[in-house]
Fold these 2 entries.
Entry 1:
Amino acid sequence: MKFGAAGLRAAIMAGLIATFFVYPLVRLLVMPFLSGHGAAGNWPAFVVSLLLSVGTAIIAAPLGAVFALFTTMAEGPVARAATLTLWGLFLTPSYMLTTGWMIIFSSHALRATLAGQAFFGVGGLLMLYVVKALPFSALVARATLAAADSAPAEAAAIHGVPFILRVRIGLRLLAPSIAVGFAIAVIETMQEFGIPATLGVTSHVPILTYAIYQHLAETPTDFAGASILCWRLIAVAAVFGGLAMACRRQGAAIQHGRMRPPARQRPTLRRELAFAALTGLFALVGIVIPVVALFVRALQPLAASMPHAGAVLRSLGFGMVGATMSLGVAVLILRLRAAGARRMIAVLDVALVANMAVPGLVLGAGYIVAFNNDFLPLYGSRLLLLIGYTAGMAPLALRMMQGALDDLDPNLVAAARLHGLPRLTRLVDIEGMLLIRPFTYAYLLVAAAIMFELPVSELLYPPGATPLGVAIVTLDQMSDYAASARLALFGLAAMAGLALVLAAGVTLLAAPRRLRPA
Amino acid sequence: MSAALAIEGVAVQRGGRLIVEEAALSLSPGECVVLAGESGSGKTSLLRVIGGLNRPARGTIRIAGVVVDDAAATFIRPELRGLGMVFQDFALWPHLSVLENVAVVIRDRVGRERKALALLDQFGVASCAGRLPATLSGGQQQRVGLARALAAAPRLLMLDEPFSSLDVETRETLRTELRALIVETGLGAICISHDPADIARLADRVALLEDRRLTSCTTPDAMFARPATPYAARLAGLCGGVEVEVRQAGSDAAIVLGSALLAIPGGGARLAGAAQALLFWPRGALALAAEGVPATCIGAHFEAGHWQALLRLDGLAAPVPVQCTSPPPRGAVALNVASDRLHLFPSSPPG
């Protein structure tokens, strides 16, 4: 009976992966071979994107390592502010960041300056790419450092190793983290869509992701051409993903049972000030200036009624439903893992890694090709859009929920069983209450990511149901910055409202009940 | 009266590998069996199988006379087995108050909090009832763990290294309290430990898990008198463990100790020819003397009321510790050996 249930779950999961990941991807990627389309494609867009991505990574990876080191080793308000800044940069949708800056440089006076000319060119793209790539590099390096042992550094200090050598030892330990951060920065920048869709279009700089979108969105559509560009995008992800995996294996971090995580120390005033300046610079460029620009422009009177006003609540709904579906898939996968279906686990792991290497844009393109026919006429429906969101976000949901489960001491659940707590009590009062905070956090993060998602939305939204990201970018392209700023801020407010409601609910439900003795 | 716990022919697998084979053990109500074994020997895995958290590969488990698992069709879920367990890391639910941690496992809802409070009072932690576990000391948390285990009104108490993360003083106090509790409540208890003090203070019997098997299940005094294996000998307090050469000398065996050949009563051909681990009682087996086996004292330290000299003997790879009443001289010394206080065990465990 038990085996049957696990087998059924595995079959459902295999069916979902085959239908909504493998099939559309294969349909898209075989197109150039079936259509006899040559290897023409848009080489300038690829070369410019690759150069920009590598350039971005060269700047972002060392900076990310510095942020990672400081936020892992240092304590105090600057370290906390730096961590907050990293998360703020990570969560800010790239097209909102770009919109803020485009509002600033929409002033003719500023646009005419050297800075203005640089912004509407490769310089502006590089700046925004670095801002968006920094949190990826830093968070990846931080994960490695957080798992590192402080013993090698302490041993070097105790044994009187000269400072220069200690720095070299430190760099040797840090090098794999920097390399992984570099690879991730290249992949993320290469796959970035929000910045090319806004600033890239205005600047007329050819970028690969936007070129793929143009092949699919402009008439006549060129699926085979888009497919060739998708191949290049995936190839870059594969090469740099392989590099990242190889670097992770080279990691010098020692992990064992008696590992002592690096101790946090208050840095010297000089270092703290220097780092405060660096954090402040990124917080200003990546969060404060664009958000203030959005606020200021949103306060300006609109020429007519606000266009796309319904997009905010619509995308909030998409976010909530998509997050529920993504977390549902994640739960299904976690249950399969717990059931120990080994072959299925191996298939799932391959599918998840592949899914992460395939950007939403490619998956969305695959959905257009795969589900726009008489057999599977899903294209143009809200269902396909939601499935697209789910396919893109399931790995994120899974990682977050797996992390929460890994943090849960299995003895807490075992204790509940051994002491005879009924199933419902165990599920609600023990496991549910212990996991409700990380699960809510995962839900909010996934819901926010879907609400502000752009590439899948651009390719798959049904007529009359424009998602928020598409609405903002459309208004940007029409230079209607006041309306796009208002939409962006309403969107942020709606998400903040959802977060507040859920947080209040969780606080009420999971608040520790401190009973007084009778 | 049914045994509180009876396991027969139990085999346990971990990661596809058999880690316990043919384990058999019976435990009466009011009896405490300490399950000892080296790290990784499968003690916790066996306990988890008894608890129903994992299934055995083979064998039968009975709790209070009821078959709870026969490795086939019969399987009673952990929550229905009537168990109480004290965890090494306490495993108190961090989001519940101390009182709730105990109250939630009491099945009868009537007067639940009053009963929980009475249990907390019994263990001296009633004043912490409204606090969260994280705000308690290790000793207080373990007391709450004990109160929770009893609150479930168990038929069998399981303890997984319950004192290993506590300081010496708290450990001592809790051992005494736990022993009194087992005797007074008549509960059967199985306790995992590799601390000789737990065996001395808690155990009615000691079960040793070595080389995938329960090699012995005997009373502490029997284990003390005739340790069956080097591990049992160490638990009983023997020291040493150096490998020595054994020769046959008539009907006796003789060990080569430095330049001397010492007869060990009995053994003879059975021991001769094989390398043996030599363990001995710290008192009376070896002593510095004016004459005897020549040795070299390489150092000494003061330990628990006596001096302990480290002696090197020709032919032995490791130094041998010897108790003495005064600081020994460094350099050449002579060693008197009481061969009846020596124990020999095969160096490598039998196949």
Entry 2:
Amino acid sequence: MLAYIIRRMAQSILVLFVVGLVAFSMFRFVGDPIDNMLGQERTQADIERLREQLGLDQPFVVQYWRFLEQAVQGNFGLSYRQGRPVADILIERLPATLELAVVSGLMALVGGIALGIFTAIWRRGVSANVIMTLSLVGVSLPTFLIGILLIYLFSVELGWLPSFGRGEVTDLGGWTTGFLTESGLKALILPAFTLGLYQMTLIMRLVRTEMLEVLRMDYIRFARARGIREKSINFRHALKNTLVPVITITGLQLGSIIAFAIITETVFQWPGVGLLFINAIQFVDIPVMAAYLMLISVMFVGINLIVDMLYFVIDPRLRVDRTQGGH
Amino acid sequence: MTDTPVLSVRDLVVEIPTRHGVLRPVDHVSYDIRAGEILGVVGESGAGKSMGGNAVIGLLDRPARIVAGEVLLSGQPIHDLTGDAIRRLRGKKMGMIFQDPLTSLNPLLTIGEQLTETILEHLDVGQTEARKRAIAALEEVGIPAAAQRINSYPHEFSGGMRQRVVIALALCAEPDLVIADEPTTALDVSVQAQIVALLKRLCRDRGVAVMLVTHDMGVIAEAADRVAVMYAGRLAELGPVREVLTNARHPYTAGLMASTPLASQGRKRLRQIPGAMPRLGALPSGCAFHPRCEFAQDQCRAEPGPTLDRCDGRAACWFPLTTDQKVSA
């Protein structure tokens, strides 16, 4: 198992190198940064001096190495627009996005698995069919449309929930949280639901399909033939087997919740890294964009790594195969 | 042992409604199994062997259902039980062994978990006692070092060992009846004999009634006390295994025997029965076997074969074979 983990980590690092290359290339493809930094009144000498000072006269590989060196230490340079270290700006914005992602991820996971089991066990029931039909809405409507519809209904017409922002936040030593105030929690409901709905319906449909598949297996039949209770068959025998493939998809989906947050954060003007990224694109704020890219890829890779390790916890067959090489 | 058979199936009819009409995979089948007896049920694929077993234990897949007849377990009717009532009997009063030991065990639970779960469900014992009994059950079916192996997962056992675990699972709550649905089909030939011997021993030691469903005449000859031959959903012949194997009365059984390489029969060239078993949706008129039967007469073409209780109780045939005919065949 240890060898497997080490191999997966090595792969993860390789992925991050490649992403870093893409992020770094952005600087070069979007024009000469010297142009942006020096004003109209510049001489060739100024340009040469700054170029040397910034190390831009070095070969590409050396520059890339320096970029990585700095990135690993959390230094992504200064934002073109705000003139502050990019890392500071990201750290400031990160809590908002993480809180949103965690809440909607939990909603998607808990709701999706529960509804999936429900619709699989009572697949002929009326409510299961209603849920299945409604889930098509979640799968097919684009996120921004759902967000706008929710704002129209709950903010404009009913006036129950705020339509934008995070509400009142509390600062806990650099981590701003909306969990502690009523307005913060209220502001979280609509964006979290919007962001999580698609993932929830996806997980639900996946769990349902897998569960139906598993319920047809011989060992379920054998468990029935031994007089095991339906409850135990569904939740002990079937659910565990259902979760193995579900974990893969779910892990990737949780990663994309953070990525999808761009749209939701834009619709709800949620002050997180997604909104920061959209604004950065509008102002061609390359350092911010590059840092965002690296941040998201670190999260994706990290989640994938965790998912791979979860397999070991759930599926005993993997535990032997990998380490002892036997079958 | 009392006179009441452990399992008594009376005129059982199982039907499957389909778009093209109603199919009858089990058609007026009757047999008894007594304690300590092994009844072999043989037939080709689709003859209704497994369907009969599933009907007894109440695990017919929809839309198949019992439409007539009765199933008595120790004299008590169980064919109309549903839900919790039948569930309580499964495992406790009747166990089932499936064909493929590779897929019969839940891959994510240790065999100990699966055993104790079954024991706790049916017997009034605590966790420690259940574990003790689980180890005993594994020892009984010949799993070496049972006390250590109990924490293993199914994939850590070989196919034959897994089938032993499956048998231990089916028997751990001490049922009176075991339905073994092709228990040796998925195994190596060398392992098959061990599993058959194990079933035989458990049946004798515990006085369990066993319904051994198989298409393997060798397994029947080896293990069964009596044999029921099925053809197109009906019972063709029923009798003591030696009698039926050496002196078949139904032309189908005779044909089946002539096409089976049994060691006792020497090195005669094997014969085959012409044609194939009809599909359930396209049964011929009269006796279902008549198109393939070399002895068929007008009555066979016109009237369905007699059920066993309406003839000599041995072969469901209008013109059962005599010894002379058998030799000529």
